[in-house]
Amino acid sequence: MKLAATLFKRAALVLLLAMPAAPVLAQLGLPSLNLPGGLGSPGLDALRAPVGRLLDRTPLPELGRLRLGQVEALLQRHPQLIEADPLGNPAVRGEILAWNPSEQGLRAARDAGLAVAREEAYPELDQRLVVLRAPAGAATAALLAALRHADPDGSYDFNHVYVGAGLAAPGPLAAPDSRAAAPAIGARVGLIDSGVDRRHEVFADAALQLWGCEGRAHPAPHGTAVAALMVGQSAAFRGAAPGAGLYAADVYCDSPVGGSVERIAAALAWLARERVGVMNIWLVGPGNAPLARAVAAMQARGHLLVAAVGNDGPAAPALYPASYPGVVGVTGVDRRGRPLPEAARGPQVMFAAPGSQMVSAAPGTPPYRQVRGTSFAAPIVAALLAPRLPHPDPDAARSALASLAREAGSKTGRDEAIGYGTIGASVRIDPATMR
Fold first, then answer.
1. What are φ and ψ of residue 347, in 5° steps?
2. Cα separation of 134 and 31, whole Å?
3. How wide is the angle at C-alpha 355 spanned by C-alphas 302 and 89, nearest 5°?
4. I need a labelling partner for 302 at 20 to 30 A (CA). Which of 112, 238, 386, 391 fits?
5. CB 380 within 8 A of CB 280
6. Which of 305, 294, 435, 425 is nearest to 355 (CA)?
7. The whole model's pTM is what?
8. Hey, is 369 helix, strand or coil?
9. What is the pLDDT along the chain (435 residues), one digit of tens a residue?
């Protein structure tokens, strides 16, 4: 008993010390607990129960500050590249986006002193995006207001930078028990996230199509973990749709301005060109007019966009793109089916899926780590939707959502905490199964 008590105290100390002192990402990753080797089966079983309770009871950091802390750090570290909009949201300094602008709008932009920095046509969406550059020393917010006044029918906004949302826990975990899988052969699913480590064992037999970063690889913990939850499979791991083809866009590429609306729109256009029916979007941030237009253009062609509702807390303002009409907003639940205390609530919540006390793949060593947050629930929902919508089709998209709602089994209608109900519970690999 003394040994068990001592180990329990040490595990609690490790957990508290490993909690992030500065909020680095918008999701919380619980640190792993290293159970000592050399114990017989009874000793290990005796420890698992208190460790499981510890994971449930440990007080969480100030979750509403996690995403805001990342935004503050971004603004402080890269003031030459990033500025704050009037509400404090990060945006590429001196840039204004014009979605499908008219000649009147471009003339108004030139009259205001703005120059065309870049222009991208998206024939898949019948749209184009123009990036306007403000003159040195000019106030971007003032120019944006003047442009909106001159062309009220246009769609103009900051080139907002959407922060990531997720963190795999530090520290090693042993491989989970061997799992059989029912492959989702023939299905395809999209991902807009950070980079995926295609060398990981869970992707050995996966069909991966990677986009972004000019062909250079930038594997990241979050992108790897999310991709694994979608299509990964090995002797030790199974995602929601192993065997499905994954079309993964890296919109970060280890760049300070990664996650900008400009890059998100380009990734959406690529997925539209590849005719991927369902896609998961990791990002959370403010409402943005060109992004809203891009999302609507995708939906009009029958794509389903799945997004995490975020972790700023149940009373926090809505985050986007999950809160745009028609986007499949996903929250996370713990292993008992309870909504995560940090998860957003509201009409944007459409489904819930496992989001804590779970394991996914990680680059490097160890190959598996604990993850937590709504952004680890959303990919499960996207992967389960993918076989129902192999290609974009408006009618099939509606049918896919209706069938998933029936599968969720809600008897009381849509709930602001878990939407139509929880799906994908079997995808969770509990840390307690680590050996």
1. -65, -15
2. 44
3. 70
4. 238
5. no
6. 425
7. 0.83
8. strand
9. 443 444 333 333 333 333 333 333 334 332 322 222 222 223 323 323 333 333 333 344 444 566 777 888 889 999 999 999 999 999 999 999 999 999 999 999 999 999 999 999 999 999 999 999 999 999 999 999 999 999 999 999 999 999 865 555 544 455 554 444 444 557 899 999 999 999 999 999 999 999 999 989 999 999 999 999 999 999 889 999 998 999 999 999 999 999 999 999 999 999 999 999 999 998 999 999 999 999 999 999 999 999 999 998 898 899 999 999 999 999 999 999 999 999 999 999 999 999 999 999 999 888 999 999 999 999 999 999 999 999 999 999 999 999 999 999 866 688 999 999 999 999 999 887 765
Kind and range of the H or E element at 234?
strand 233-234
Q: Is the dihedral of CA 381, 54, 233, 179 positive or negative?
A: negative
Q: Which residue type sits at 364?
A: G
Q: Which two tokens stand for residue 12?
A: 């609690």
Comparing C-alpha atoms, which of 89, 90, 107 is closest to residue 98? 107
Residues contacting residue 21 through CB under 8 Å, at least 6 positions apart = none
| Residues in CB range of 110: below 8 A, 6 or more apart | none
Helices 140-150 & 103-111, crossing angle to 10 degrees?
A: 140
Nearest Cα to Cα of residue 298 among 419, 399, 389, 185: 389
Contact between 338 and 356 under an 8 Å Cβ cutoff? The reply is: no
Whole-angstrom distance, CA of residue 200 vs CA of residue 361: 8
Cα 102 from Cα 357, distance rounded (Å): 50
Four-CA torsion 292, 122, 91, 311, nearest 10 degrees: 50
Residue ranges in 58-182 assigned as alpha helix (H): 66-77, 103-111, 140-150
Instruction: Give yes or no for a contact between 120 and 81, defined as CB atoms under 8 angstroms apart.
Output: no
